[in-house]
Specification:
The complex is a heterodimer of chains A (465) and B (144). Chain A contains 23 helices and two strands. By secondary structure, chain A is mainly alpha-helical. Classes of the chains: A mainly alpha (465), B alpha/beta (144).
Chain lengths: 465, 144
Amino acid sequence: MTDNLLGLASLAPVTLAGCLVLLTLDHHGVLRPVERLALGYGVGNGLLAWEMLVFQAFGFPFTVIGLIAPLLGVSALALLFARRRQPQERRSESSFASTSVSFHRFEWFLIAAIILEMLRAFFQAWLLPMEAYDAVSNWGLKAKAIFLAGSISESFLQNPNYQVFHPDYPLLVPLLESYVYRFVGDLREASAKAVFPLFLAGCVVVLFSALRRAGQTRRSCLLFSFLLVSIPYFSEQATSGYADVVVSFYFGAASLYLYLWQTTGRGLFLALSALLTGCAALTKNEGVVLCGIHLVWLAAVLLSRSGIAFRSKLASLGIYFCILAAVLMPWYLFKDSLGLRNDLINREALTAGLSWNSLTRVGPILYHLQTQVFGPKNWNLVWVLLGVAVGLRRRVLWRLPAVFVLCAMGLTLVAYMGAYLITPYTIPPFDVTWHLRTSASRLLLHVLPQVVFLIGLAFGETEKV
Amino acid sequence: MAEKSTSTLPTAWRIILALWIPVWFFFLVWPLRRDPSRLLNAFSLIRADTEARRAGAYGEEFHAFLNFCKDRLPAGSTFRLVGIDYASIDKVRAFYFLYPSLVTEHAEFILVYKTPGYRENNTHPYASLNPSSFILRSSQPAIP
């Protein structure tokens, strides 16, 4: 348990920095404390990874004090500055019902089940060392190299014997793990693995908050939070050291806050969405696709709205794009300086893959998707429920504003599955079927919070007015 | 969408829960029902240290081999693996575990796992765990 506690202790100052940034942005006290904590954890981790990339560019070593002091100092100064400028404006405008109503038995059951699943995830993460394939090859090995070198080991990323471990993959997860090792002072894998169940907890809190903001009752939010956390594959992936649950958090939260911006018009939600989308792209290359999809979503919303000045529309799009660019720039400059490129999805693969021949892969892709939809062992009935929701609740899900979430999710799946049409795996046993089997189900995790959110909108219960 | 909150559950929820909870509970309990030793293993791991947990995950024999190699390889050395399938998870675990020793084709050390009698030109035995798992040292200079 000491390992877990050390892991949590190392992440506390990072979360605090994230919370301070959110307090700075949240002039009107819109975010609730637990929501702020969950988002602060995600934003803080993103800022830490960003800071480490900037340190790398300037040749600063990764020391604990050297990393935490500027992060906390700058975020605290920003908060002080923001408070001085607008001291009278700050008041709680949270749209949640804040009167305390005692929990019913059904709610207690859901709370107990959610806590049980969370504890199970923390326990599993603590119990097992880094041992899963990508957890050691993609993320753990890089984290170890960064920890031992005290910076991002450029020679390691350029070593041709390690090219198979995708040196072009973004480094948020290895940087976080290496930070935990540095804070703890040793390569304690169990401490670093605490990062992942915390992202799972973050997903649950963000889903609860987003549904609550969408007008759902407390028990409705609890029900759908329970559905999310009890999806076996989701909680399992939060314990193995894979980065997909991290993308689920960033992409899920980014989409849900973009939806909330769409429904409320609050600038805070737009900025949060941009920040979180950028963090998704710092976590995995798939995040770049998600950035594109969110930009298209934003542009579509802005274009569909009449009565807003063109300048204002352009400003919203510009702010979103600038936040994304600021978050991603250090990584892409670094990656470019090393000449790293993706070995699967690149210009050659695109040129070679864009042929009628590649359409023969549509069959295996659809077959694989079908095994997931009707795969209760991994997904319980979440995909079936989504199908039923989309079919039966067309008045909710096929109309504004939910249709944008639905389209963004569909576009994500199309883009992800489209990549399998061009990946250069052609020779059995390493053909597209193998590639799908080893990676596609994990990609589906990225849209899971949105899926449950849509099911919640479709079958949830709205608050009495 | 239901529009008011009452003490009774909406019909849609009842249907969802009636289907969801049995599936959730089944897949929570079924692995333990099928293999009760999993639970015992989990309890035994609670008291185990990191290396014992790693041995449980990697396999006792392979973990012993990796530990043996880690103890014997000089700092900053290069190695190559023999007897471990290129596509296997053991390969990546070895790369991870043995880092900062680096893998290379023309390595100073050849780590031979479960391949009795394996020999290469210009190498000599360096250390041995057992007759089938040992380390050979190349007499030619390593190329990183």
